[in-house]
Design a protein that fits this description.
By secondary structure, the chain is of the alpha/beta class. It contains eight helices and five strands.
């Protein structure tokens, strides 16, 4: 009789009991990634966020900064708060600092480029909720040739991520670009496009097919995952578009 496959809980329990591996986020990460394939799109999205945190924790651990970060957080949580100058009924919440606006550039003129790099992002406040897309395109020399942020109405995070990528691919094709490297911080979308995850959500299937068709019109198009920290400009364009929409409502 064939042995049943151990559940993720059992595998993690065995891992945590192993004194040589339990402190390494990378080992936990591999167990989670190997079990994620059979999960729903929403569960895969949540796991992608956890995986991103584990990668950041691993980087901090390797740099010897994880302990410092933990100590700083504990110190911040336990320090005494200064006495309030105003009663709770009259105190005003601190104003949120305004984000510096991202200058909009481009799009590139047709025929100006044959190869480029695209950073794509999409997000929703509320998931689903008000959503927007952000795009940053760079030339082979690293010059920013296109920045784009646009509100797209109410959507989920995943729909916004696909809509951003579709917009970026269409812009590349209109500019006559033939070779494109694409970077996203949405690991779920990347894994769907590389075939590691199936697209189980019916709302995402037509968007997935549209991306596949657009990529097929390029001579070369590779989609890769990057940490959120390396996709900050596209993320700022998403939030800028959402802020503009909220301010004009």
């Amino acid at each position: 009789m064939a042995k049943s496959k151990a559940s993720l809980t059992q595998r993690l329990e065995r891992l945590l009991l192993d004194s040589e591996k339990s402190a390494r986020p990378s080992h936990i990460l591999r167990e989670i990634e190997s079990a994620a394939v059979s999960l729903s799109d929403r569960a895969q999205e949540n796991l992608s966020d956890l995986i991103e945190w584990l990668r950041e924790a691993e980087a901090l651990a390797q740099a010897g900064r994880l302990g410092d970060l933990t100590a700083a957080m504990e110190k911040k949580a336990t320090r005494e708060l200064p006495p309030a100058k105003e009663s709770p009924s009259t105190a005003k919440p601190p104003a949120k600092p305004k984000r510096e606006r991202v200058e909009l550039v481009g799009p590139p003129k047709p025929g100006a480029l044959t190869s480029a790099t695209l950073f794509s992002d999409g997000g929703a406040r509320g998931n689903p909720g008000p959503a927007a897309i952000g795009l940053v395109m760079k030339s082979e020399s690293g010059e920013v040739v296109w920045t784009h942020g646009e509100a797209i109405g109410d959507a989920t995070n995943n729909v916004a991520e696909y809509r951003a990528l579709i917009c970026g691919l269409c812009g590349a094709l209109e500019a006559g670009i033939r070779r494109l490297d694409v970077f996203l911080d949405a690991e779920l979308i990347v894994k769907q496009l590389t075939g590691e995850y199936r697209v189980k959500n019916l709302a995402l299937r037509p968007l997935f097919e549209e991306v596949r068709a657009l990529r097929g019109r390029l001579e070369y198009c590779r989609v890769r995952h990057i940490p959120r920290a390396k996709n900050r400009l596209a993320d700022r364009l998403v939030n800028q578009a959402l802020d503009d929409q909220a301010g004009g409502a």
